[in-house]
Amino acid sequence: MMAATIAYERSGCKQFFKKHRDDESTIKTCIEHALTVQLQTGMSKVKRAVSARVNGQCVYECRINLKRTGSARVAFIVNGTDTFGNGNNNSDDETIPDVTVLFISSTLQKTSSRICWNTV
Fold it and tell me: Could you tell me if residue 120 is inside a domain?
C-alpha cells in the first residue's frame, strides 16, 4: 500500500499537536494510514464537513482512532487526482492524491466551523 503525502495546516493542527506533544509521531502515522486506506477504498467512511470549499476543493471529515490519544475528527481536503466529487479528475488513476489536513479535534462533536478558512 502506497502512502499518501500528507501536509498539516498549521493554524488548525497546532493546538492539537501542542496538547499531545509526546504522541505527535504516532498521531501522524495513524492519520496517514487511515487517510491512505480511505482514499484507496473510495472514502466510504468519509463525509463532507461543510458545504463551503477551500481553494476550490471539498472539505471532508472522518473519525480516526489515534491509539493512546483516543478518537479524533480530522477535516481535510484532497489535492490533485480527485474522483470523489470535486471535478478535478486526472487521467492517471494509479496515483494517490496529496492530502492537506486542515483541522484535528479530539471532541467528537462536529467542530468544522472553527476552521480558519482565510488562512488556507
Answer: no
